[in-house]
Automatic annotation (TrEMBL), chain A:
It is a multi-pass membrane protein. This is ABC-type branched-subunit amino acid transport system permease subunit. The chain crosses the membrane at residues 6-25, 32-54, 60-81, 88-106, 118-143, 176-198, 204-220, 225-244, 250-273. It is found in: Cell membrane. GO terms for cellular component: plasma membrane. InterPro entries: ABC_transp_permease, LivM-like. Keywords: Cell membrane, Membrane, Transmembrane, Transmembrane helix. It comes from Prauserella isguenensis. It holds the Pfam family BPD_transp_2.
Automatic annotation (TrEMBL), chain B:
PROSITE patterns: ABC_TRANSPORTER_2 (PS50893). It comes from the Bacteria. GO terms for molecular function: ATP binding; ATP hydrolysis activity. This is ABC-type branched-subunit amino acid transport system ATPase component. It comes from Prauserella isguenensis.
Length: 306, 264
């Protein structure tokens, strides 16, 4: 087990940071906000952590905390700016934000290291730290999926007008998802960079948008569990598919397309739907009259359609 | 009761100096050149069931959207319990005690009956453990009253259309509102279901809940309401006791046409 862990430590750590990145896109999506701002904040977080450590000698914890706060503030400000946009237009605006971040860091001179990026930002991080952050984040997000808050978030996603009639300030919820997404993106970016010790503009490009989206499509968009399942699939898939060699990309593409077509709620969505069908059938079986002689007529006025 | 050129067909019956729950004055909602609602004034007094009657496209639902701030007013003013609210945002209306249902069934598809009703119950407050407990109790009471007991764990796709409409009504009354606005609450229901809902609304009136119903089913409105407003082409055309309003020539004409009125 220990040998296995040390030979796969990069994948284990990458699973935890990629989970945070996927959650940074899933959180707004769960409230009906089609935003990729979390990916842009991943870039901001990565560069702030690297700049903080390389140029200003910040500690690992300070660099991560600063990245999360700046990510949250920037995403919230972006949310204020584009709060009237919805659907694909919102998605395009947030993708543009992500691309702008990568252009800015290319042209950031000595501060960002230009096209070559920054080196030597090795943080004092281990798998335990990553796991602790992931557990805290997942525990916090669980509260947004259950109970009164879960119902309200779902109402905001499914029917904003209904949510509004239920006294829910839809605009505030949307802005809050931007902020949370920015914090998660900042955390993911900073921790990834501090593990690798380097960051370059290529690390924060459009491919991260595609990665986060495919994780959520395949894993499921309605729960943190979907993000975790999708993350495990896509982080570990290259390892599992090593035997197919050069066909890996083809298999990858077919799996994503199949999930999008046949599992509209992702792997976890299909599992939940299957479980509900099973429960419904059990309930119907319990409600059905037992085998035996037909029931005798009852006295008039007794029974009814209840 | 109503202003402008419309005719008050029951005269002094509604002139008692009761403080109004809701007052809409000269409300207009125009969409470009379309005057969906144009100069409508209504006043709702406590503990009564009011109805807005009119053929399809007469502006009933737009009036309801205006009263709940879902569409902006082109002109006019709105007051709830003596406070102006024509500039506030829609979500603040619920907190003041206005609940509504929609013309089409709008319930959360992935949630159980209890969750859907709890959403309404929580709009009256769910902060803190005690408040959450009270919200759950309000939801359970609303479920009982609307005949949904035993179906709490069902999902909307396991319910008939009539039961789905009950979920909407349960969600609205679970917030224990001061004013309940119902947009065609019995649409698509059979006679028995319709009578059940009419009975429930009557019970709620007995408890002092003011209600405003939007419908185009004339008989249901006469059965359920204490006072009717009739609309056509965005304007009020009659206002008063239900029996008198449905006999009013302008209302008969709106429903049957001039020729139909001659034969009626």
């Amino acid at each position: 087990m220990i040998d296995w862990y040390f030979s796969h430590i990069v994948l284990v750590q990458s699973t935890l940071t990629t989970l945070l990145l996927a959650l940074s896109v899933q959180v707004p999506l769960r409230a009906g906000v089609f935003s990729f701002a979390g990916v842009g904040c991943y870039g901001i977080g990565g560069y702030i952590a690297a700049i903080g450590m390389v140029h200003y000698g910040l500690s690992t914890a300070t660099a991560i905390l600063l990245s999360a706060v700046v990510g949250g503030v920037v995403a919230y400000a972006l949310g204020l700016l584009i709060q009237r946009l919805t659907g694909l237009y919102l998605a395009m605006a947030t993708v543009a934000f992500t691309l702008i971040i990568s252009v800015l860091v290319v042209n950031g001179g000595d501060l960002t290291g230009g096209a070559a990026g920054l080196f030597g930002a090795l943080g004092m991080l281990d798998t335990g730290h990553l796991l602790a952050v992931a557990v805290v984040v997942v525990a916090a997000l669980t509260f947004t999926e259950i109970g009164p808050l879960g119902r309200r978030v779902e109402a905001v996603r499914e029917d904003p007008e209904l949510a509004s009639a239920m006294g829910i300030n839809v605009a505030r919820y949307r802005r809050a998802t931007f902020a949370v997404s920015g914090v998660l993106g900042g955390l993911a970016g900073s921790m990834t960079v501090l593990l690798r010790s380097t960051v370059t503009p290529d690390d924060i490009n459009f491919h991260l948008v595609v990665l986060a989206l495919t994780i959520i499509i395949v894993g499921g968009s309605r729960s943190w569990l979907g993000a975790l399942v999708g993350t495990v699939i896509f982080v570990w898939m290259p390892e599992v598919l090593a035997f197919v060699g050069e066909w890996e990309d083809v298999v990858y593409g077919v799996l994503v397309a199949a999930a999008a077509v046949y599992l509209p709620g992702g792997v976890t969505g299909a599992a939940v739907a299957g479980y509900r069908t099973y429960r419904r059938k059990r309930r119907e079986a319990a409600d059905a009259p037992p085998d035996g002689p037909p029931p005798q007529p009852v006295a008039a006025g007794v029974g009814g359609d209840s | 009761m109503a202003s402008g050129t419309i005719e008050d067909v029951d005269g002094a019956a509604d002139t008692a100096a009761t403080e109004s729950v809701l007052r809409a004055d000269d409300v207009a909602v125009h969409f470009g050149g379309v005057k969906a609602v144009d100069g409508v004034s209504i006043e709702l007094t406590p503990g009564r069931i009011f109805g807005v009657l009119g053929p399809n496209g007469s502006g009933k639902s737009t009036l309801l959207a205006a009263l709940t701030r879902l569409v902006p007013l082109t002109r006019g003013s709105l007051e709830f319990e003596g406070r102006r609210y024509d500039t506030v945002r829609p979500h603040t209306i619920a907190a003041r005690g206005v609940a509504r249902t929609f013309q089409t069934v709008r319930i959360l598809p992935g949630r159980t009956v209890f969750d859907n009703v709890a959403l309404g119950a929580e709009s009256a407050g769910s902060a803190g453990k005690a408040e959450r407990g009270r919200a759950r109790q309000r939801a359970r009471t609303a479920i009982e009253r609307t005949g949904l007991a035993g179906k709490e764990r069902h999902r909307p796709d396991e319910l008939s259309y009539g039961y789905q409409r009950r979920v909407e009504i349960a969600r609205a009354i679970a917030s224990e509102p001061t004013l309940l606005l119902l947009d065609e609450p019995t649409a698509g229901m059979n006679r028995q279901e319709r009578d059940d809902i009419t009975g429930l609304l009557g019970d709620l009136r007995g408890e002092g809940l003011t209600q405003l119903l939007i419908e185009h089913d004339v008989q249901m409105m006469v059965d359920a309401c204490d006072h009717l407003f009739a609309m056509n082409f965005g304007e009020l055309i009659a206002d008063g006791e239900p029996e008198a309003v449905v006999r009013h020539p302008a209302v008969q004409e709106a429903y049957l046409g001039k020729q139909g009125r001659a034969h009626a």
